[in-house]
Amino acid sequence: MDVSKELQEYAENHTTATIERAVPVEVDAGLLAAFDTTPVEAEAYSTSLEPHLLALTLTSTHSLLSSLFSLPTHSTPSGPTALLPTPTTLLPREKPLPKPKPLTKWERFAKEKGISHKKREKHEWDEERGEWVARWGRDGKNREKEDQWIHEVKAGEDADQDPAMTARKARKDRIAKNERQHARNLADAASAAAASGPFKVDGAGPSKSASKSTSTSASGGGSSISQAAKVSLRAVRKAELERSMLVSKTSTASLGKFDKAIEGEPRAKGVKRKFEANEDVQGEKDRQLQLLKGVERGRGRRPRGGREARARREG
Amino acid sequence: MSMLRTIKPKNARVKRALDEREPKAVENEKTAIFVRGQNTSEKVRSAMKDLYALKRPHAVNFSRKNPIHPFEDASSLEFFASKNDASLFLTGLHSKKRPDNLVFTRMFDGRVLDMMELGIDQIKEMSEFESVKASVGVRPLMVFHSDLFDTHPTYQQLKSHLLDMYNGHPLAEIPLTTIEHVISITAGPASDVVPLPKVHLRVYTIKLLASGSRIPRVQLTEMGPSIDFSVRRIQEADSEMMKAALKRPKLAKTDVEKGLGKKRKNIETDEMGDRVGRLHVGKQDLNKMQGRKMKGLKVRKDKAASGGGADAEAGAGADEDMEGDE
């Protein structure tokens, strides 16, 4: 049995010979990668592909490993561990950089005035009971007034009012107010995010960027606004579509009077014309004078053609 | 995103899961989705199987075929990306016009960043090589050969795609004994006849031999897969989008040294190599311990709160009994 061929194959597969390189192999230890920038030899490539690939890999792997093994190490239970440097090859991130959390109205105010944040503890000391009690929540101190069985009625207060109910109503109103403020802060944050997406839509109105987003999401190409911005822009786009639909409905010669209506369609409400009252002499006089003043100052319509045309005429 | 409801977290677990998907300064490892198109060939299926095996555990394999043509319409990929929080895709396709097709797609912020189409010319599966395979989850080394990966934009993109797929997540440290395999990517020599030469992907297991110095000698054994690719269509990234994707966060050096912004408190590794956590539990108050529940010993909430009544006394009696037991 002749095993020389197998032996030769084995030796080829297990070789440790490396190729000499004039240009050293670039190593990016942070990414565990090496880049051999020497052009592949056409002759070796065409005649003996597999051994050549193996030799190339050996060369670059050897230089990568030698740089990995010369990195500073520390010993861990799983053997010596090399501390890797930061990668030099730039690869794209998965998601954009996190944006700082938008400030609430109070936080903005506090920042302006230089008020520093003071965290209030959840529990406070109750002198009467001689123990720590929660400020709010279960057995909260904010419900003390509602639970007590005797109330002091101050002079001038209504005799038949229910103090417990008044206290409860005041607490519920505070909660409602806080929720309103929270909702407003959220809305402000959302609109601010929509106004400045990750890659700012420069000066483009909401309609322009919205149409851009819809067209690009259909084609699957790269649009340039974020997901959150898309959602809020959709509302703007919807309002705009409704408006343009209304306009187009009344754009026929008969103002849409004879058009077929779709079932369940809301009635288009147009803008009502407003006439000035005939009796108001003073108001009419004021308006006419205002108009005359404008003519006097020369604040009429600009000549056609805009600034460039004017410049051409003058210069 | 439009197809998904925006979820408002109702409990802490859901909130944590959603926060995990938010943009982070130091990102998690990218997940890759391996999905088949309507028609695939044997070559495509075996290539995807092996490339998936190399990418595991940060990979999801879709077992069903999907009517996807990434270059025509990538909306379903965007949907999959948002659903699975994944940003890398490998789509396998096969058609008369483009036989044995693999499409690499990268996402940024839930939208397609760039795409790359490769045709499989020749493949030898991992199972065809009689050798020891690398363990799952072990980080490979990656080596690229040819000047094209440095000069030609198409090959630069290919290099970026493959690096991103297998080594994109930078590690802070690596145990040197865990180096098991190397992925070797070689582009053939470019000429006027062959402007876009083939790309050869080979995977070898590494055996480190003693050399007498600190740096060991290397012995390689092919482990598979062995795939020859030809470059087909590419879709380059939008420059604005790429610019945003390449932005790096400014991290303080101390944060980087302390595990990149991640809080690691009370976790240690003991001499046996086990991870040990330290928990802080408040001092146990035996007086508050719940004894045997009986109707007679019940502490009513309203009376206990007012701090008086017969029930509270009964409770105190129970406490004394318990102390007597000890």
Automatic annotation (TrEMBL), chain A:
The keyword Transferase applies. It is found in: Nucleus. GO terms for cellular component: nucleus. Residues 73-102, 114-231, 275-315 are annotated as: Disordered. Residues 73-91, 187-196, 203-230 have a biased composition (Low complexity). GO terms for biological process: ribosome biogenesis. The keyword Disulfide bond does not apply. Keywords: Nucleus, Ribosome biogenesis, Transferase. InterPro entries: Ribosom_reg. Belongs to the RRS1 family. Involved in ribosomal large subunit assembly. This is Ribosome biogenesis regulatory protein. It comes from Saitozyma podzolica.
TrEMBL record, chain B:
Residues 283-326 are annotated as: Disordered. It is found in: Nucleus, Nucleolus. The keyword Protein biosynthesis does not apply. Its main location: nucleus. GO terms for biological process: maturation of LSU-rRNA from tricistronic rRNA transcript (SSU-rRNA, 5.8S rRNA, LSU-rRNA); ribosomal large subunit assembly. One of its GO terms (molecular function) is rRNA binding. Keywords: Nucleus. The keyword Nucleus applies. Residues 30-240 form the Brix domain. GO terms for cellular component: nucleolus. Pfam families: Brix. Residues 290-301 have a biased composition (Basic residues). Belongs to the RPF2 family. This is Ribosome production factor 2 homolog.
